[in-house]
Specification:
The chain has a single domain, classed as Arc Repressor Mutant, subunit A, CATH 1.10.10. It is built from three helices and three strands. Strands 1-3-2 form a three-stranded antiparallel beta sheet. Helix 1 crosses helix 2 and helix 2 packs across helix 3. The two termini are 18 Å apart.
Length: 93
């Protein structure tokens, strides 16, 4: 049971990584704002995958802590990512 949960979390983390890469590719500025709602929308539009926003938020929060991303002062957690730092991101895998 525990191993199945770990595999699904790893798969989810890889999907979130791909969604962040897509966000950075489509962005015109040098900074992209990451939020669980944006990532959920990208996953739904590009892959047809519906994942609960709170699960995405947990992984995004973990990612932000690992990479020391700046959190914006909003009710919904949002993080600032410089596109140049995309290749250096450490994902929770």
């Amino acid at each position: 049971m525990e191993k199945e949960k770990d595999k699904s979390e790893i798969k989810l983390a890889k999907l979130i990584k791909k969604a962040i890469e897509i966000l950075c590719e489509k962005n015109f500025s040098e900074v992209v704002i990451l939020s669980s709602y944006k990532i959920s929308s990208i996953l739904n539009d590009n892959f047809g995958i519906n994942i609960k926003v709170d699960k995405i938020g947990r992984i995004l929060s973990n990612l932000a802590k690992r990479n020391q991303l700046k959190r914006l002062n909003t009710n919904i957690p949002k993080y600032r990512l410089h596109i140049s730092h995309l290749t250096n991101l450490k994902f929770p895998l």
